Amino acid sequence: MEEIQNKQIMDIKEVSEYLGIGKSKIYSLIKMKKIPAYKIGRQYRFSKEIVDGWLKDKIITKKDNTAAQNTVSVKLGQEK
After folding, report:
1. Residue 39: left (phi > 0), alpha (psi -120 to 50), or beta?
2. How far apart are CA 39 and CA 9, in angstroms?
3. If we measure between CA atoms, which residue out of 5, 19, 9, 18 comes closest to residue 43?
4. Where on the phi/psi map is residue 21: left (φ > 0), alpha (ψ -120 to 50), or beta?
5. Could you report the per-residue pLDDT of 43-79, keeping only the tens digit for each?
6. At 28, which helix (H) or strand (E)?
7. Model pTM greater than 0.70?
């Protein structure tokens, strides 16, 4: 895995290992145009930098939500 961390361009197997999801899921994401990929001939390649950016864009919990979560916790605590 450390080898993959240092690679700048990954193939299907490497991006699958890097993301911790199956190769068939990677192919599904490509087909749905949900993951950034390059097609070179008949093979797909992934830029680690672009995949990392894609992951950051897909994050569902952000620091902005921390204040909102604290407010909810305080309100719940007051109801007790």
Report:
1. beta
2. 12
3. 9
4. beta
5. 999 999 999 999 999 888 866 555 555 444 444 544 4
6. helix 23-31
7. no
